[in-house]
UniProtKB/TrEMBL annotation:
UniProt keywords, alphabetically: ATP-binding, Nucleotide-binding, Transport
One GO CC term on file: plasma membrane
Bias kind Basic and acidic residues: ranges: 306-327
Protein name from the UniProt record: ABC transporter ATP-binding protein
Superkingdom, taxonomy of origin: Bacteria
Region span, Disordered: 306-334
PROSITE patterns found in the cross-reference section: ABC_TRANSPORTER_1 (PS00211), ABC_TRANSPORTER_2 (PS50893)
ABC transporter domain span: 23-262
Keyword ATP-binding among record annotations: yes
SUPFAM superfamilies: P-loop containing nucleoside triphosphate hydrolases
């Protein structure tokens, strides 16, 4: 009630308190006269201090979104804001400053993240030098602290080819953190690593999040990474379709803790939502569903009017109760 009353008054802007705001984001690529709609009205809010994963099938638009958030690409329409900066209207000068100070980026290809002829320490100190402001000795000390925080002290004077793939990716995280960005973006950072190494690289992201308070967004195909964060957002056909939230709950009686995870569908402001494909297939839902408003939830039922019409034609049977003998639709929310 309170919330409803507040929203009727001076309604705060969508995502006003979020660090990352994507509002009906659209990105259309036109190549050889063929249009590809990589993002089709994507909504996403990320709060400051979150550590979250983005998942989705190949071609669903994950990298397109990351490139926009990194300030490397400009959306076709919609709104994208990071830390109050408008990524559509930002000029070249501001864009450069944004990429240097506000966001850090880690790519999948280990070779793309580090300069091969510089040591780990020099790689981390370089963005600090480009940003200016700190003296050489200060930069070296700050770089050394970052390497130590990510357990890379032993790689200080090694060049990338003298480091393992996992060490290179952790060094890449240190480089991305060099100018203490608010947001750390990573596109498949563990894609080229085995699962044990991937685990260590993921731990480095967690350290950045916990020790420095950096907001972290990781695109991943890695189930273990996706399972280890509290929030996993799934992108489907250029839109955020659903998200899984996990939290630890303590049993009041026994004191035992367990991880509870729930899947939510995203609901946009026009009321559109995407049902998970497997839910739709298992209930034979397509084209149209029957809705029933209950006091605390909405029931979603397969549309049987086509079956019923066929039955009426053959047996003369009248409309039947949609609840009759069918699996139940949406369960009440959390
Ligand atoms: N520069 C581009 N020019 C034309 N089409 C593009 C371009 N970049 C991406 N696309 C298209 O946009 C869609 C989304 O691509 P994107 O790279 O964002 O997918 P993705 O989710 O990152 O996939 P993957 O998991 O394979 O990395 C795809 O159909 C892709 O072919
Ligand atoms: Mg990609």
């Amino acid at each position: 009630m309170e919330r409803r009353a507040a929203s009727r008054g001076d309604r705060p802007a969508y995502g006003h308190d979020a660090l990352i705001v994507c509002d009906r984001l659209v990105r259309v690529f036109a190549t050889d006269g063929v249009e590809v709609q990589a993002l089709q009205g994507l909504d996403l809010l990320v709060a400051e201090g979150e550590l979250m994963a983005l998942v989705g099938a190949s071609g669903s638009g994950k990298s397109t979104l990351m490139n926009i958030l990194a300030g490397l690409d400009v959306p076709t329409a919609g709104a994208a804001r990071v830390d109050g900066r408008d990524l559509l209207t930002m000029g070249a000068r501001d864009r450069l400053a944004y990429r240097r100070d506000t966001v850090g980026f880690v790519w999948q290809q280990t070779a793309r993240n580090l300069l091969p002829y510089l040591t780990a320490l020099q790689n981390v100190a370089l963005p600090m030098r480009l940003a200016g402001g700190r003296r050489r000795a200060e930069r070296a000390r700050a770089a050394e602290e970052l390497l130590a925080m990510l357990s890379l002290g032993h790689c200080r004077d090694r060049r990338p080819h003298e480091m393992s793939g996992g060490e290179q990716q952790r060094a890449a995280i240190a480089v991305a953190l060099a100018n203490t960005p608010k947001v750390l973006l990573a596109d498949e950072p563990t894609g080229e690593l085995d699962s044990a190494t991937a685990e260590q690289v993921f731990a480095a992201f967690r350290t950045a999040n916990e020790e420095l308070g950096t907001t972290v967004v990781i695109v991943t195909h890695d189930r273990t990474v996706a399972d280890e964060v509290r929030r996993t957002v799934a992108i489907r056909d250029g839109r955020t379709a659903s998200e899984v939230l996990r939290r630890t709950e303590r049993d009041a009686a026994t004191g035992t803790e367990s991880l509870v995870s729930r899947e939510y569908a995203m609901l946009d402001r026009a009321g559109r939502l995407q049902l998970p494909t497997d839910h739709m297939t298992s209930l034979g839902m397509a084209h149209r569903v029957l809705l029933e408003l209950e006091s605390d939830h909405i029931g979603v039922w397969p549309d049987h009017t086509a079956d019923d019409a066929a039955r009426t034609r053959t047996t003369g049977e009248a409309d039947r109760d949609p609840q009759d003998g069918d699996a139940r639709g949406a369960a009440p929310g959390a």
